[in-house]
Amino acid sequence: MMTISLIWGLAVVCGIWVIFGIRRRKAGEPPLENGLIPYLGCALKFGSNPLEFLRANQRKHGHVFTCKLMGRYVHFVTNSSSYPKVLSHGKYFDWKKFHYTTSAKAFGHRSIDPSDGNTTENINNTFAKTLQGDALHSLSEVMMQNLQLILRPPGLPKSESSVWVTEGMYAFCYRVMFEAGYLTLFGRDTSKPDAQRALILNNLDNFKQFDQVFPALVAGLPIRLFRMAHKAREKLAEGLKHKNLSKREQVSELISLRMFLNDTLSTFDDAEKAKTHLAILWASQANTIPATFWSLFQMIRSPEALKAASEEVNGALQSAGQKPSGEGNAIYLDQMQLNDLPVLDSIIKEALRLSSASLNIRTAKEDFTLHLEDGSYNIRKDDIIALYPQLMHLDPEIYPDPLTFKYDRYLDENGKAKTSFYSNGNKLKCFYMPFGSGATICPGRLFAVQEIKQFLILMLSCFELELVESPVQCPPLDQSRAGLGILPPLHDIEFKYKLKHL
Ligand code: HEM
């Protein structure tokens, strides 16, 4: 009796779901995949391998299609020649809603959208003012000093400095970039150098713990389900409270401007403001660390890349009158000199092309028609329009032999930056998008490339470098973070380094 009622109950629930829970495609809308699982839709298939899932739907439906993912309807536009057209529909898009809600969920602050009344700060203006233009000069200068302090600490005994060290390359990049990046944004406590180092290492452990659950938080799971990560997040935020930051020197313009913002209408207390600083810490580190690893790994692994990069760096240091010395004298290259390193630029771009898997998302503010070159599509209010640039980055028509690292892929015949890439015989406006696009393009992208370049310059000019295993297999990408940006390696690889006798 019980079993029969259960079967009837299930049948009724399924019936209701079929009638009301699944969307029916209307005329003029893109082809639709509802998926078989209520609410989740296609989320499990998408999550297990986004690239293959999107390629399979592209083959089935063509370049534009809709998938139900976690209760939302997402319209994927998959041909890169349509990206500029999609972005030109900006007046129909709300790009803030998704970003601000995700940030609030992951970092534990309330909405930072001024229209929600918690703050008057236009945070995008703050980013543009403090991460680009003139502000970038001082940010880069401080980053270079910090990198050198970490890589070549002054007063290192000769016995220690001239030995080979073997370490995981990802662990090494994580340690160096986290410490240098943290000090550059949040300043340093010069009164207690030893305590400061312990604090940074502690922050590094907490950051790793928190970052591990980040994909789950973005997917909507509450942080309370992850006790250790929750604790780690609270500890990281504690260190970023005003009372702690105000003891630090050389705090970046970005953070000091936000600390002393004349935001009289703000309802954020010190603890909540610290969580918004934590969001900035995450944004500045989570992609930069794996991007640094892939740039170093791909460069060392390819003898031609290593040779070309070493020659470029030696030449640049020579013409700038800079010479690394055994005494640890600081090296400095200004913005112009850093910008004039096409080989390093090409190596970094190629490393990011191969490892980037970001999802560019916009929400439809109202019903509208998306006009693309090959057709028009009706989109409903609150639906999501998404671009997944990894499809473009690995398209063999745009990038022949797409899975191979070619250090000079982004160099033209004159050795300058190459900007002509084609699909279907048409020159592409968008061919490289690891930093997102349009209104939500990463505001830290210029700084990110400069800090990776500075790191590579120091590794090339001050260290002898060797892979422990040579030739080494390229580690697979950790797909569990697909959608979030640069994917880390699934496992580390060992390398050896030793300070050069200069
Ligand atoms: C290789 C390193 C980096 C990569 C690949 C990267 C990539 C991205 C991407 C894909 C987005 C989201 C764009 C979108 O939603 O369309 C983003 C946002 C952001 N990035 Fe980066 N990023 C990097 C480094 C940095 C650095 C070093 C900083 C700051 C110092 C930074 C600050 C930010 C901020 C603040 C946002 C959020 C902007 C907003 O919500 O409007 N990023 N980044």
TrEMBL record:
The chain crosses the membrane at residues 6-22. It is an enzyme of class 1 (oxidoreductase). The keyword Iron applies. Its EC number is 1.14.14.23. Pathway: Lipid metabolism; bile acid biosynthesis. It is found in: Endoplasmic reticulum membrane; Microsome membrane. Keywords: Cholesterol metabolism, Endoplasmic reticulum, Heme, Iron, Lipid metabolism, Membrane, Metal-binding, Microsome, Monooxygenase, Oxidoreductase, Steroid metabolism, Sterol metabolism, Transmembrane, Transmembrane helix. Its cofactor is heme. The keyword Nucleotide-binding does not apply. It catalyses: cholesterol + reduced [NADPH--hemoprotein reductase] + O2 = 7alpha-hydroxycholesterol + oxidized [NADPH--hemoprotein reductase] + H2O + H(+). Pfam families: p450 (PF00067). It comes from the Eukaryota. Belongs to the cytochrome P450 family. This is Cholesterol 7-alpha-monooxygenase. It comes from Microtus ochrogaster (Prairie vole). The lineage of its organism: Eukaryota, Metazoa, Chordata, Craniata, Vertebrata. The gene is LOC101989304.
